[in-house]
Amino acid sequence: MTDATITGAHVAPRSVPRLRLAAAEPWLYLAPALLVVAVWTYVPLLQAFELSFYQWNMLPRSTPRFVGLDNYRNLLSLPDMRQAVVNTVLYTVGLLPLSVGIPLAVALLTGGLSGRLRNLYRALIFVPMIVAPIVAAILWRWLLNEDHGLVNAWLAGLGLGKIGFLSDPDVALWTLVWITGWKLIGFSTLLFAAADSAISPSYVEAARMDGASPWQIVRDIRLPLMSPTILLITMMTILFGAQWSFVYINALTGGGPLRSTTNVYHVMWEYGFKTMAAGWSTAAGMLVFVVFGLIAIGCLALMKRFAVYDE
Amino acid sequence: MIRRHFLALALSTGLLAGGFSGAAQAQMAPAIDKPVTITFYNYNLASAGLGREATLDLIARFEAANPNVKVEPIAAPSNEVLSRVQADMVAGLEVDVAQLVFRDLIYAAEQLGAQPLEDLAGDELSAHAEGFVPNGLALGAVNGKTYGLAYVFSTPVMFINRDLFRAAGLDPEKAPRTWDEVKAAGMAIAEKTGKHGFFPGAYGPIDGTFVYQAIVMSNGGGKVRDGNTLTFADKDQADAVAMLRDLMDSGAHARIDVGAHMDTFASGNLGMFLFTSAVLSRFETAAKGNFELGLAPMPSFGDKPTAPTNSGSAIFMFSQDPVKQRASWELMKFLTSDEAYSIITSKIGYLPLRPSTVEDPRYLKDWMAANPKFQANIDQLDRLTPNVAFPGPNYRQVENMMKEAVTEAVFGDGDPRAVLKTAQDTAQPLMPQD
Amino acid sequence: MTNKARAGRIAAHGVMIALSFLAIFPVYWMIQTSFRAENEIFSGGWFPTAPTLKNYADVLAAMPMLRILGNTAVMAGATTLAQVATGLLAAWALVRWRFPGGALARSLIALSWLVPFQVVMIPNYVLASKLGLLDTVAGLVIPNAAAAFSVLVLYNAMRGFPREVVEAARMDGAGDFRILAEVVLPNLRAPLASVSILCFISAWNEYFWPLLLIRRMENSVVQIGLQFFMTQEGNDWGPLMAAATLASLPILALYLVLQRQVVDSFMKSGIR
After folding, report:
1. pTM of the full predicted structure?
2. Minimum distance, in Å, between the CA of residue B115 and any CA atom of chain A
């Protein structure tokens, strides 16, 4: 849609050499990004693809041994894999309210508040974003500890029982979802607020003139115009939820208690990346890339269909 | 066609080069007659505190005594140091001496190309090893040759919160000696104080398997593997885990966040904590003004002897150049000398590989007199039992499966022996075939 | 009507205050712990009973913290500039022209986001060492000089840009680069600010790559500095919290400054 409009006028007839130059022009703009991505991501990725069929530790003194699909077979037949897949879905579903629901509500709510307080709130809820993940992990581990943690002390003060936030297999996963989401709320809010502020006030003004209620304005103007951002963040949560929570799984539970918090990414890490066996880790990497790549392509198709752009 | 393309890509950045086999070993140079720089990969340097200070002190002393040798220290956290060494080898950088944890022993020897010290230093090694603890060289041996020289290591000891013992009506002077006594004491603490009884540092992400292995091998000496056959689900080995599960079911074994056990003990909420003695100085600071800290040897199964297993690390040599080999060997000798162990033991809290230093007034005698708690740790040196590393390219995966199974056997509600057996059957195909 | 609006406003404040508390309490905990003596760490309470600066002294004694903060600022700043620059150019190419291979290029850039870092880590390390980038800030920046995130966000932002303005500029005979630099860019302040902030933060919090690449303390960055107080023998809570506080303060200050800029740029923006 927009491609067509911005591009449209440019297809004016021109001399042939000029056209050839014009054909090269977009590639000049793309070159820096493509070059970086090619050299530092895709070349190594192709190498990884090949290595995933070998058993090798990458050391110059040893020779790679071709093992066909063994690396993939070993990974997929790991006993934790099924649980990990289920948990990955749980993480994603659990994260959505924290990465999309609350931030969207906050952006819409605070849009109507007076400037100074609104900025204060937005500044405060953004703070977790700047806390290094590893620091966030150990802070929450501490606050949520059953014995010396403040949260359980408060719960006890309220007459409630202690909760083993990280030691109870029924709770631990949701604890990790919360910690992951805690860092995301501010990030998403910032993006939603930016999207909301970018909406031309003339639309809102016009709707108000027509007697639309605030809710109608949200539903019919603000939400649709924020839809690219909403879809982007939803997609990011689906694609990266497992990766984001991985930091906390790795730092806090190591997948336990009783594998209740493991996810696909963590299993890959545990058996692939963490060991220096090139075969396991590249096979793990290829699996992650291909599966999430397919999901991404699906998401992109959906995005194209549902996003509304201000024209 | 496509295959060739990938191969070309791989070759272009030097991966998959393969085929290079170490050239015939040149003899180590007899002396260092020109200035030489060696790299030293070390994890004590990667964190602030006593370990770093002591290590820097050791390196400075070594350089002062060997003016021709310059040591370039490369710090990496203990769980990253192997990756760093390997990445640098892949990148073609020179690795001379590296401090690696014992779980990586076989990998370092067979895959990374650590030098077998007997071949290189022969008589010098046996002369240097005089005065080591009986099992000293065995800690770093693979197939009868020494690849790693035990360096900073320790054994599991029982940390005691004596205040909790008193509060539970127990005598803190009589620390539990057997697992039955641990069970009784743990139940008493849990019931009377509402705090936790006992916990071993055996399940968490950073714990390794040395505490678990020490418990297993204390039950009749059976190991977690026999050659290339996994045996961690055999009767004695599984019984040991079943004992832990029994502690758990009785309430004596805490059910806490496995990654925060040190904090639980330091905050005064745990009565007995079985873990490496290397954390002693940290607990002493944490306990000051909060509770009275005690130390006891690890518990036994009835009157069977305990098998304290080494945690920590050994130092390995990877140098190829004869002069650098000499420099590396001199560094390794210095780091395992009487002088070095007086520093390592008194400043960091690791065990002395050379027990005679404990009685020698030039070295640790005074310090021991001032730190009587440490005796419990020293006493275990006689029975020091080498930690069992796993062989083959999948050694980490196998070890991981074992540890997961142990955790599930203790914390889960399935039959512990069945859980171990299933894991053993799953992991066995990942072991090297005979 | 006004009552209803007021009730709604109070509810909004209530929700925001609760969320703000949840957001900053752990950070408050970090800061107050950084002033506690070592044997007081676990004693609970809202304030340290005997506040001490010893943890900060320990941090400054253990490492050249100011220099490390400087390194991190340079690294994060350079990474941000590079990502924004490559992102702007690429996004402009994708929005401005429709050309064969354009969709493929966009997909390749987008998909690169999904490649797990660990897969490319070792090959990149080998390459960086061949290029002499070990232990350098350049080595930390160059592999991250382009990011799918900045390309995609700026791409979306540009697509939302009113075409009349571009048309007008084109009528005036402006070249494509001039339109980008003089017409589009000034109107992209808000998304640019958001992208910059997020790039900066993620570069600031980068951990695995510096851990592999940096060898000397004086070339280190703050995340490695934090690791310094997390040892095999447990966390050194006091200095760790002090270091974490020091590591967070500059970026928090920067954010507070930029937050104002973002809001201002919305007000002044020519999008009407």
Report:
1. 0.85
2. 13
